[in-house]
Amino acid sequence: MADRDATLDIALANSAAAANSFKTVAPWARATGFRTQELKLRALSTLPECRVAEDFLVNSQFSRAGREGEASIQEYFSDSSVVMLSLAGREPPSAKAIELPESIELNMALGDVLGSRRSCRAYTGDSLRLDYLATLLRSAAGVTAHGDVVLAHGERRTLSFRAAPSAGGLYPVTLYLLALDVEGLERGVYSYDPLRDQLARAGDDERVTRCLRGFCVPDELISLSRANAVFLFVAQPWRSMRKYGARGLRFVFMEVGSMAENVHLATAALGYGSVDCASYYEDELHAALGVDGVFESLLHSVVIGCPG
To answer: Could you tell me the pTM of the whole model?
Structure first.
């Protein structure tokens, strides 16, 4: 690394340092119609626009004086809340449920898979086996253990624990699948039911096409046309926020990140490729999936395919 740095042109190095070290005041930004993110940074003190991201960081902090937050969290240790958690996600069975085959055993050592994982954007178009897909779904959101909780009057309730951590065991994230080229699975949109370990069909090929149109990444950068599947992480933020307030949204983002990383590691262990993708128009994806974008919102996606 040191040798390569020594060959860097000194003028280019100085330019890179200056670009990262200085912020020029841009008072003319108010009169500029097309504002890039860089221009907004240089005009923070002059633009009247709402700074949503920074406001979120400030307003989602814990405070010692936040007694309302403490009371909200404490309520979740009551028997009624334990019963609620034990029933969470137990929706009526889908008439179009698809049973999944056994998973492929992941034998690669953790150190090896951590070292070999890379973002893969180019795919060959070869099919993905259904048992490989089942392994990835379970790695993201599958139930891995159960635990009994004894209530005050002696009744036992069983809680289900999943592969990725979730604040308070609330599991506000639903995993949707765009099945593009999976052996034994019709092309379509599916949702994964962790408790029954099943896929429920949520849309046909036409809906897949609508979802893919919502992505704004060129095929030269991520070859969606030759990918096998796209995982869509759709969250219901208030499932977490009713306990943790605005801070609960932080926990939802953390959960999505944990689920996505599980997918990447399992994909690498299976010899396939994956990449995070945030290049999509939320309103178009929300319309295609039938969610409102506020109480239920797409937060992330992962593209999976046979590496080219």
So the answer is: 0.88
